[in-house]
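Notebook B, p. 112. Complex prediction, attempt 2.
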Amino acid sequence: MDILDILRAALQQALGPQAIVFALAAIGLNIHFGYTGLLNFGQAGFVAVGAYGLAVSVVTFGAPFWLGIVMSLVAPLVLAVILGVPTLRLRADYLAIVTIAAAEVLRFVFGSVEMKETFGGSNGLNGYARPFQQANPYSSGIDLGIISFGRNDLWSLTVGWILVALCCLLVWALMRSPWGRVLRSIREDEDAVRSLGKNVFAYKMQALALGGVIGGLGGMFLALKQASVVPSDYSTLMTFYAFAALLLGGAARVLGPVVGSILFWFLIAGLGSFFSQSAGKGGWIPTVIMTDTQASVIRYIVLGLAIMLLMIFRPQGIFGDRREIAIDGR
Amino acid sequence: MRKRLYRVLVALIGALMVLLVGTPVAAQATETPPPDATAIQVTLQDEANKDAQGNPKPISGVTLEVTKDGKKAGEGVTDDKGVATIVVKELGKYTVTLDEKTLPEGTVLDENTKDKVTVTVRFQGPNNRAIFPIGVTAGEQSSFLKDFAENLRAGLVFALVLCLAGLGFSLIFGTTGLSNFAHGELLTFGAVMALSFDQIFKTGGLSSVSVILAGVIAVALGGLGGYVQDKLVWGPLRRRGTGLIAMMIISIGLAIFLRYLFQYFYGSSTHSLSQYSDQQREQHWYYLGLSLADREAVIVVIAIVTITAVCLWMAKSRMGKAMRAVSDNPALAASSGLRVDGVITNAWVIGAALTALSGVLYGMQLQVNSFMGMRILLVILAAVTLGGLGTIWGALVGSMVIGLVYELGPLFGVPTSIKEIGPLLIMIVILLVRPQGILGRKERLG
């Protein structure tokens, strides 16, 4: 067992592109759930339309790259309006069911054989990311001793973490404005806000759209980094992982989702590496108890357990404030 | 007029082929002792002309020519098992050509069938594998009515399975208000438990009733699982006053936990229950024009009996009445002297057992794998939402509608590869226009 190896794998993931995608998705969720109290279980749908907005407009419709980027911001906005107009009046758990269903419908449509011409079917789309790769100013990768990133990864990471920082700044600025205070008061008591003459529906809609667009940014980043979009990436698990990251870091805190996402991937990759070293040939766990394939599954078992325990014993996560969590519904 | 297409399948024997066609081909492979030299083995089978056991009829006396770079490298004639072994000298790329003139009277290649296939010989020895894609794309023409009957049958069976799971969901939602995202895993639990006990019983003296016995045990364990869940997790949370949204997120954690726990023990591949394979569709039972395989008839009967029993029990028994009272208004039920916590525990036990039964039946109809519950969780949600969350009759009606829509949708323009979207779209629309569902009452809406 090589502790350094485990640490390397964990750090690589914690600072890598995956953490950025989930940080952006979780920042979006933080605006929905943490600040406004909207239970959006369809964040994967917003991430997906962000990614597909770029890929479809460039690959399928031959639009220039910059227009693809614009479309990847517009698509989540459109989805937010389509979803929001009818659903924002529903009770929290109904909203959750509608959004999760809508995200799944989107994923099915993107992956369907019948729409292969437009969305590329289950193989997805690629061949749109060249301008992004060409803009790479780095001439070589970076070696930080324990971890190292190649030239392309370094460029993605720079762009990604800048995006995350900008989004955090935006959330920080917005949430200390009067607008942000209205959002929080909607989370605490919708009727009280309404009685003060605020248009609750409009505020909720703005929150849904903003969080959706930030989630879409995550999708755009994933699409640029991978240079391909594949529908299976955007399953409900993506939403749940983003939720786990958010809850881990602490909802209703500006840096909660970012720290949560870094920690989430640190733990997932660390556990993965730990168990893959422990099981199989040369490991200390006998194969009767755990084989190689089983070793790759166990981190998700731990993840599920962790989500439960976190929500039961410390729903505010690491940084959160218990009084600021919207978990009392009905 | 229906044109009969003769489909001829020519295959090179190998592991790939065994996977695709099943045991008959494998049996032929072992019966023909291969020579020591490097060779290509070809099997010719008439897929359109099957015998009583459903095995395709072998075609004998057909000449096959093997060429390499345009030069002839060997020739062979299929024997009475439809197998030809053609010896070649070296490794490399070969083309196998079928001589159409030597096919027996009445057997013709259909339009989509090619008479050539390229084979790469990579290994010394006779086991060079590849697939001859002849006749695979050609389908029989079918009428709308036949498709409709076929899908109606599938839809009916699926709807009944869905109904049991929906009843379970409704019982739990009605008494606790929890949208349980781990409900799909309760279904998977039933299926994998049935699978495990089936594996135990099928070799012993109980092999003739192995699936039935395993199913009964799985349902009992499912109920026990519901009890344990309520005592360990949900009960303490209720007493602590944890909010419903927090519980919902906890149920997501539980779902992920259980799903990967099942994957840990059962892998990600598909398993079938032991009596699955000998259920041929040839042994039909005919009911109202629907032809059900024995297996499906059993599923239908079990489901209908159970659903009727549960409905009667809910309507007549003391506990059933208590459950309805709790789901109507827990505070009022408590103040009239009902032991609300006990009633909720009962709902968990019965709900989980019903869902496990649904998993057993679903595993009989399709097959068992660790992700089956997750895949239909949203369809279950769609069914109970359509009928009205928390109401028994709503779960029944909703499940029937959604089950039929799920299977009949493809006939009316829903793309087959994504037939899940039919139920999901219905659910979204219902939640928008009539959130209380078809049979729900308005005041249930918070």
